Amino acid sequence: MIKKIFSGVQPTGNLHLGNYLGAIKNFVDLNNDSNNECVFCVVDLHAITVKQNPRELKSNIQETVATFIASGIDPKRSIIFNQSGVPAHAEGAWILSCVARTGWLNRMTQFKEKAGKDKEKASVGLYSYPVLMAADILLYDATHVPVGDDQKQHLELSRDIAHKFNTDYGLDFFPLPEPVMNNNTRIMSLRDGNKKMSKSDSSSYSRILMTDSNDDIRTKIKKSKTDSMKMPNDELSLDGRPEISNLLNIFSAVSKESKELVIKKFAGKEISEFKSDLTDILIDLIEPISSEIKKLIDDKGFLNKVLQDGANKAKSISAVTISEIHDLMGLKS
Ligand code: TYM
């Protein structure tokens, strides 16, 4: 059976190891399976829910596309485009905002975190952000959505919106999208094992970027927060050691060995020895991707063509969905 895949990434800065291990690595695996039809979107309309510098936004859009391709997504096989290039997303978001209930949006934890104490000052867009995300997914009849753990609640909302639309209009019009997740859906900050690795953390030592040099990676792993004990002997002794647990998760994700096996390999050893091996495998992973990103960034003509071709394909798929929605809702004369 053909799986229809949709996912998006915000162009709000360099992508980090959390984005890669939690989402983009899955995009690549899904892209490589010929049973799938994949659509990957640079969600610039989501990015502007908080104020962006226009020049930086433009270059971040290109860098996000470059990171997709450098990581292994083939633009000949998968559709890659930016959200603002396809007007159906904005229209779909409006229509679905008339289906979604405010009570559902009030429960979204990401809005509460991002809006902070002064909710009155948050943009309306930040509040209705998950409805735009539902439009992204539903316009392409996506059945599977690869995301990290932090997007799970938004995906559940997309399912609720799809279900209510189907109930209101008496049809199985939208498929209910399923999350695609691996074991690395929550990569934590290198400075605090209880906080998610994030583009917005004020410390650049909290995250490894997919554009980091080998020296950057070496320094960041060396400086990453740990404790003064030796490496644990088993999973149980990881209790209360969130930073070591996170580094073990990263090691396991990058080396593709189970966490159990990685724990066994380093049991009782010095943390410095583990960090040194972790640095080596991270460099092996990131060096080729980062050098490819740099090459692609210099080829703006190519990146723009990928976005243009992708937008044309995305427009023709999403226009059909919008037209069917118009018909169902009585919007067409
Ligand atoms: P964004 O841009 O914040 O993140 C992109 C992807 O990276 C994942 N991710 C992580 N995974 C593991 N550990 C982390 N520390 C980590 N940080 C980020 C995210 O879960 C995400 O999968 N709302 C979305 C973008 C979006 C979207 C969509 C996704 C818009 N429309 C439709 C799926 C389908 C977002 O802000 O992702």
Q: What attributes characterize this protein structure?
A:
333 residues, 13 helices, single chain, 3-stranded parallel sheet
Explain what the structure shows.
With 333 residues, the protein is mainly alpha-helical. It has 13 helices and 5 strands. It has a 3-stranded parallel β-sheet with strand order 1-2-3, with helices on both faces. Bound molecules: tryptophanyl-5'AMP. The site of tryptophanyl-5'AMP has 25 residues, from strand 1, helix 1 and helix 7.
Question: How many helical stretches?
Answer: 13
Bound molecules: tryptophanyl-5'AMP
Helix content range: 40-55%
- End-to-end distance, in Å? 37 Å
Report the major sheet: 3 strands, parallel
Quaternary organization: single chain
Q: Quick summary of this structure?
A:
This protein has 333 residues and is mainly α.
Topology of this structure?
Blueprint: E1 3-9, H1 17-31, E2 36-42, H2 44-47, H3 54-71, E3 79-82, H4 88-97, H5 102-106, H6 109-115, H7 124-139, E4 144-146, H8 152-168, E5 178-180, H9 214-223, H10 242-255, H11 259-266, H12 271-297, H13 300-329
Parallel strand pairs: 1-2, 2-3, 4-5
Helix pairs in contact: 3-12, 4-7, 4-13, 7-8, 9-12, 10-11, 10-12
